[in-house]
Amino acid sequence: MRIPLLSTDVQQYLESCSPAGLTLLELDIVEDIAELTLAFTPEALDRVLRTQLRTAGTPSDWDCPKASMEVGTPTWAYALELADLFNEHYFGHVVLERHEGALQEILTTHGHEGTPIVIRPAYAPSCLALNLRRLKAEHLRAAGLTAPEARAA
């Protein structure tokens, strides 16, 4: 069951949080469980990916203009690891622990007192690979390395 007013209140809460950068993609009450799908805003995802690349390092094929970004490549493996990190660790644990109390209050206000909250995965490696492709093309252009993908991006 989708509840528009509840979704609006959750989105407003997320927008008021610091640091900003989370958005509600979907909220359903299924079998008395509140299922939220949260994601980074596009701007926040860009910042997070840039920070991750800078601090954790880049995939081994990052400087290669001709390297594929398909399944099985180092960049795909990187996207797969990030999807797992975001879905399981960050949203599934850190965000839930940090915001569960406030979300419970919002649920209670809307008549769903004591409803357990779960956060569903929002990121697939293919989604993150698209963002990484854009960042890689930007990197290759800045480094003076040219490739058809870098010129097209």
Tag the structure with descriptive keywords.
disordered C terminus, 3 strands, 153 residues, alpha+beta, elongated, three-stranded mixed β-sheet
Distance between the termini: 40 Å
How many β-strands, per DSSP? 3
Q: Tally the helices: what do you get? A: 5
- What's the mean pLDDT score? 91
Approximate shape: elongated
Main-sheet strand order equals: 1-2-3
Question: Which segments are poorly predicted (pLDDT under 50) over 5 or more consecutive residues?
Answer: 149-153
Helix/strand structural class: alpha+beta
Helix content: 55-70%
Main sheet properties? 3 strands, mixed
Q: Strand-residue fraction?
A: 5-15%
Brief write-up:
By secondary structure, the protein is of the alpha+beta class. Helices cover 57% and strands 14% of the residues. A hairpin with a 2-residue loop joins β1 and β2.
Please, could you describe this protein's structure?
This protein has 153 residues and is an alpha+beta fold. It is built from five helices and three strands, in the order αββααβαα. Strands 1-2-3 form a three-stranded mixed β-sheet. β1 and β2 form a beta hairpin. Mean pLDDT is 91; it is low at 149-153.
